[in-house]
Design a protein that fits this description.
The structure holds 2 protein chains of 2 kinds.
Chain A (H helix, E strand, L loop, with lengths): L2 E22 L2 H10 L2 H14 L10 H8 L4 H8 L9 H18 L1 H4 L7 E19 H8 L4 H8 L2 H5 L5 H9 L3 H8 L8 H17 L1
Antiparallel strand pairs in A: 1-2
Chain B lengths: L16 H4 L1 H12 L5 E6 L6 H14 L4 E6 L4 H14 L9 H16 L6 E5 L16 E5 L9 H11 L4 E4 L12 E3 L16 H10 L8 E5 L8 H12 L5 E6 L6 H14 L5 E5 L5 H10 L2 E4 L8 H8 L4 E4 L4 H4 L7 E3 L2 H13 L1 H18 L2 H18 L3
Parallel strand pairs in B: 1-2, 1-3, 3-4, 4-5, 5-6, 7-8, 7-10, 8-9, 10-11, 11-12
Classes of the chains: A alpha+beta, B alpha/beta.
Chain lengths: 218, 412
């Protein structure tokens, strides 16, 4: 069994949610809020939202789109925001720019709708991450599979979804290790293609597990 | 009635593995390892009775099992103190405050007595609710960090009481709230801390089907026909009359039954009046079951929720709404009002249905009775939502994360 030059060290993250003093009661205020809120706030309402609602595979996976639909009844704008794929972003500032630009364009084109009171306010919040090592490390693909089989959603989300913000690469911790640590480039690419939007995190993890098992059986 | 075994043994952290998964328990241990050698203290105003004491009595032993040095202290006071703090509680929810000005002095005097008695020297002190709020006066004697856990809705407080309490709040390092809706603009950091339920408590643990059936039969409820249930005390804000009116609309289309299970009518004159009113609107319909239950009915409530086809929570105003959490945990489709903390739990069309009127409630109930597969999906997703956010293990994770953050980085 091939051993990686460096082991894969599993970790997890837990989040403290800070409720900021910033609120939006209409789309024009959301537009202002998107310009002023912290990066942790952008993270909370997008990447963290995906984790909180991981068991849902329909509806909108980011809080902004969800509020625009449920609170403001603006389906077209909500769909555009929801269509932004978090995997395309390596930095929160790029994601913020795209969110802002969609909301700003809409507010300019529909000023009367931008000033309409929403059914409920939008509370900007922030996620403060505390990451901890799980003190589990593996060097072979077989050991990797065994740990992956028992991995929590929180740890999977940390390594598979939010990792690109730390790595600033269009990949995830698992694919990076499979590729650079074990030289399994094709497996790494197939892992990166797993859809985290149309699958629950649980199903995404099982898909990765299946890919790893296939590789081991070859 | 076939008895289900009463829960007598002490619960341990590993008992929760079968519910949330062993990896989640491992993660709690990993988080706690960052707090080795640190001391934490919780302070509230009662050791028994009420939601805060109930959850602390379960949370504190479980956190201690993670090798955390954690102490739970309870402040004491005379009847006059608790009458004042009850008036504070109502006033912070917006009610008028009619106590004399010296009530503030009495409140402070009892807090001073407690400050002299208690040793508040832990690395982190968590004060629960307004009763012990002025204990913050002791912080200058110690280097620990102080957090205020507010379990009530502070969004529209009575200005007299709030202007008295706010200066104390602002001396804390941070505050914790159950919902963003319950907060006010604040100069100190405010963190989101959902309340939680214990899946292994009498009120929430799994029950044998035979026991559920025997409870239903004991109350003469037919298990073969749809059962709509609202569990809440008989209080106008829970709108039991509105629930009966919604049921009457549904009844035109479905041969269903309604269960209104609650308590508190015996020792609350207002509750008694509401109960009389409910009986009046329900009169003549044998399919409406009004159950005024004693406080020790946790198992029966559990069975009624589990035996229901749909659970309703048609409140006009609500706190977080833990009865909704309980129903979601039991995989029940829920139709509830969009008030208080309910929309956090019931994500419309995903983990339940929200309604804003009697007619809307009736329509959503009819829709779910007509579409059992959708009802089943909502129940399943509601259960997952609770597992992720509102169980005692999630509360433990939040506290550990807060402790690490506050002790390693300060609170802001």
């Amino acid at each position: 069994m091939k051993k990686g030059q460096v082991p894969f060290r599993f970790a997890t993250a837990s989040y403290l949610i800070r409720i900021s003093n910033q609120r939006a009661t209409k789309l024009s205020e959301l537009q202002e809020g998107l310009a002023k809120c912290s990066d942790s706030s952008i993270f909370y309402h997008t990447f963290h939202s995906l984790r909180r609602h991981h068991f849902l595979t329909e509806g909108f996976s980011d809080d902004f789109a969800q509020w625009i639909m449920a609170g403001c009844n603006q389906a077209a704008l909500a769909e555009r925001l929801a269509a932004l794929d978090l995997r395309d972003y390596l930095s929160l500032s790029d994601l913020r720019n795209d969110l802002r630009s969609l909301v700003t364009d809409f507010c300019h084109s529909h000023p009367e709708r931008a000033r309409q009171e929403a059914f409920e306010p939008f509370y900007f919040s922030e996620a403060i991450e505390v990451s901890v090592p799980l003190n589990i490390e593996v060097q072979t693909l077989e050991d990797f599979r065994n740990v992956l089989a028992e991995l929590s959603n929180a740890s999977f989300h940390f390594h598979f979804v939010t990792s690109r913000l730390r790595l600033h690469l269009r990949t995830n911790d698992f694919s990076l290790w499979l590729s650079t640590g074990l030289g399994l480039e094709s497996l790494a690419q197939r892992a990166t293609r797993i859809d985290i939007y149309t699958n629950t995190l649980e199903v995404a993890r099982r898909q990765l597990l299946a890919l790893v098992s296939q590789e081991l059986e070859r | 009635m076939k008895a289900t075994k009463p829960q007598t043994r002490t619960l341990h952290l590993d008992d929760y593995s079968s519910i949330v998964g062993a990896p989640e328990i491992l993660e709690l241990r990993a988080l706690a390892s960052r707090l080795r050698g640190r001391t934490v203290q919780m302070v509230n105003s009662t050791s028994v009775g009420g939601g805060v004491a109930e959850i602390l009595s379960r949370l504190v032993p479980l956190l201690t099992e993670l090798n955390l040095t954690l102490r739970w202290d309870v402040i004491t006071g005379g009847d006059d103190f608790f009458e004042i703090t009850k008036a504070f509680h109502n006033a912070l929810h917006g009610a008028p405050y009619d106590k004399p000005p010296e009530s503030f002095e009495i409140f402070l005097a009892y807090n001073e007595q407690n400050r002299a008695r208690l040793q508040l020297d832990s690395d982190l002190v968590v004060i629960h609710d307004p009763q012990p709020l002025p204990l913050i006066n002791d912080r200058e004697n110690h280097s620990g960090r102080w957090i205020w856990r507010c379990h009530i809705d502070l969004s529209r407080p009575n200005p007299t009481v709030w202007s008295f309490l706010e200066p104390y709040v602002l001396r804390y390092d941070a505050s914790l709230f159950s919902s963003p809706d319950f907060t006010r603009q604040s100069a100190i950091p405010q963190y989101l801390f959902y309340p939680c339920i214990d899946p292994l408590s009498e009120k929430n643990r799994d029950l044998e089907p035979e026991f559920i059936e025997s409870v239903l039969e004991g109350f003469e409820i037919d298990p073969k026909r749809p059962i709509l249930t609202q569990v809440s005390r008989f209080d106008r804000l829970k709108d039991p009359v509105g629930v009966v009116n919604a049921y009457k609309i549904v009844k035109r289309y479905f041969d269903c039954q309604l269960v209104l299970a609650g308590g508190g009518a015996a020792d609350d004159p207002e509750g008694g009046k509401v109960l009389d009113q409910v009986r009046e609107v329900a009169a003549g319909d044998p399919d409406i079951h009004i159950l005024d239950l004693p406080p020790w009915s946790a198992l029966e409530i559990n069975a009624l929720q589990r035996g229901s086809t749909i659970v309703i929570q048609k409140s006009l105003r609500e706190g977080f709404g833990l009865t909704v959490t309980e129903a979601l945990w039991k995989r029940k489709p829920v139709v509830a009002s969009a008030v208080g903390g309910i929309p956090i739990q019931v994500i419309h069309k995903h983990t339940g249905m929200l309604a804003h009127s009697v007619e809307g409630t009736a329509y959503q109930v009819r829709y779910l009775l007509s579409n059992p597969s959708i009802a089943e999906r909502l129940g399943r997703q509601g259960h997952e939502h609770v597992r992720e956010q509102f169980l005692i293990t999630s509360a433990m994770s939040r506290y550990l994360t807060l402790f690490i953050h506050a002790l390693e980085h300060g609170s802001s």
